[in-house]
Predict the 3D structure of the following.
Amino acid sequence: MYDMSTRRRVLALVAEGRSLNSVSRETGVSRAAIRSWQQRLEPLPRIASPDAGPPADHHAYAYLLGLYLGDGCISAHPRGTGHYLRIACADAWPGLIQLCREAITKVRPGVGVHCLQKVGYTMVTSYSRHWPRLFPQHGPGKKHERPIALATWQQDIVDAHPWEFIRGLIHSDGCRATNSTTRLVNGERKRYEYPRYFFTNLSADIRRLYTDTLDRVGVDWKRANAYNVSVARKASVALMDTHVGPKH
């Protein structure tokens, strides 16, 4: 009645610690069927666990690090030694969801990546025992309530791929917007529009990582308010458009 891809998806959700009720509601598969698959199906082939080496793709890691610092978290499996990396991606930007999935698989080839639908956003999730080592900023409490600093090896990757790091931060906690203003020209008030980039984060440490990286690539910025960093100068916006661009 159900194809193997459906069974795999359902069992993957259960393996994440979800209740049978919640998995049944999300997938439309009955609890009885799920129990049957758990008890009678041959175990699904296990994906080989990646080794404990460095990120496989530094380019993708710089982007994923930006996403993690903005909208990511790591949590321990309640019944295992592994951890879940979770990145929240707004449903308004389906391209972002795909980029996030691709970045995870490039950073850790072989890991599973699942998308869990929430209200208004998709939680891109991956299970591995190595996520806390790859993101040592992981810790108890909210990011803005504890110090956030990059390890030396992380900073080396960001220095080598600064635009990918900026892109990940903008894709998580930033946007490209159009502002408008009016000017008096020859006695007539005219309306002008111009693009700006905004980045908003409660953590002063994360904002500093963002602005330090902007400085390294020659982008002028200013603080719009206590938590918001703005890029509005024409030349700097052009740089951001070339290397970052709007979310899609």
